[in-house]
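Thread: quick sanity check before group meeting

JM: Hey all, I'm pulling together slides for Thursday and realized we never actually wrote out the predicted structure for the chain we discussed last week. Dropping the sequence here so it's in one place. If anyone has concerns about the input, flag it before I start.
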Amino acid sequence: MKWVTWDQAIVVAVASGALVIVLRRLPRTRVRSSIISACTEVSLLSVLYAIWRLARVLPLDRPEGAIERARDINQLQQDLFFPSELSLQHFVLDHQWLAQATNFYYAILHIPALVIFLIWLFIRHRDMYSHWRNCLAILTGACLVIRFIRVAPPRFLPDLGYVDLATRFGLSVYGPVGTGVSDQFAAMPSIHVGWAAVVSFGIVSASTSRWRWIFLGHLMLTMIAVSATGNHWWLDGIVAIVLLVMALCIERRIRDKIHMSKNIRLGI
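JM (edit): ok, ran it. Output follows.
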């Protein structure tokens, strides 16, 4: 699998920023304002994406301690009576169509779903867009920091019976260690689950449709996919969701403080 590279994202960011500068010199119209807002967000998100991809090239793809921590997580989950990822993986492998669908869901849908969500939010619920964009940035930043603690995914423990579905059905986002889109030993926390939680919770929060609860299924399916493919432990996803909740609280507190400061300056 090949995704947009960090340097391509920077090109998009610069081009979008340049377009904003040009448009600001033109007469004010509603269309101009809308385009400026959209280009500003494209530029900002492109920079954030570039940072995420740049973190991939840091010299961190090393196994020191990763396997041992994976075994510790596996033991902790057993002590907490978590259901086994291995049983889920065996069930999926018993049905080839389901294994292929699960592998496709893991490899393909997380970024397009996030992009579509952000576009929908920007167009339909502009008042809530910045809130969820900020939470996404905080969550992703926290994941990038925690990745310095190396943790191997279940597929690196074949002695326990785990397999890598991508080696059987293709669509691998990793390849050999040190290559691929994502970091091999950054299983904790699962950014797949974190981004899926942003999409699911964001839709439920922003939409008023009675059908909005259906989109919680995206988070549930992602949790299943990351575990069944052997790419994450249950705790990887749980930690990602906890980080999102913390990001929501942090963003809300910062927003309240900014609002309070404005009121003080205005004498309200």
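AS: nice. Confidence is low (pLDDT under 50) at residues 176-180. Residues 234-266 form the longest helix (33 residues).
JM: adding both to the slides.
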